[in-house]
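Entry 14. Ran structure prediction on the chain below.
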Amino acid sequence: MHIDFNLSKNILAWYDNNKRILPWRVNKNYDQRLYYRLLSEFMLQQTQVKTVLPYFNRFLQKFPNLKSLSKTDEKTILKLWEGLGYYRRAKNLLSTVKILANNNFKLPDTFKEIKSLPGVGDYTANALLAFIYNKETIAVDGNVKRVFSRILNKKDTEINFENFVKNNKNNLFFNNRNSDFVEALMEFGSIVCKPQQPLCYSCVINKKCKYFQSKKKRKKTKSQTKKLRKINILCYLNKKKTNRINKKK
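Output, structure tokens:
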């Protein structure tokens, strides 16, 4: 399955003008970027952004950097996590940070090594590779699956997303903004390519989106059918009226 246009160029252009301002989107020094991204990725697992925001800010006030977080204990972090749910994430976060502390707070730079950290699956490993090292990888969540599925007009169960990314590298990674592109895809899927009532008519890639083209075709066919039905009804009424006039004569 291939796409025949530069998806990243279009999505990044949209992202630059529409992205949300979120506290973990920082591109300053390595240490801060790693801490903010690590903390946010663990918190965002199965949790919405609006729910995470106050907890994220609260953590930064209590633990301003990875080093301070690595020195805390499980009881303290669970208390601070209280109300966010899925407490296993808090335990895994602390375990991961303590492992990184033994490596001079450096994140491994391979998928296999990152995935070996507590609580890190395929999605989080790919996200961290992109956000921290700007690697050519895609963190495939529900939003990203929906964008790809609609571009191809396929069910997500019909797509091997790992192969799709590999086969379309030239149209997915064309500059040095791989980190932004991963973020942009998720943002685009959340705001524009929504599960319900997607904003297809204002979408920057609708001319290349097979789902939208199919939707337009269905709408046109429906409109034509409705128009034809209306014509048939008018013809029927006119015929009926003519018959009544003829009978009177």
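The two ends are 69 Å apart (CA to CA). Will compare against last week's run tomorrow.
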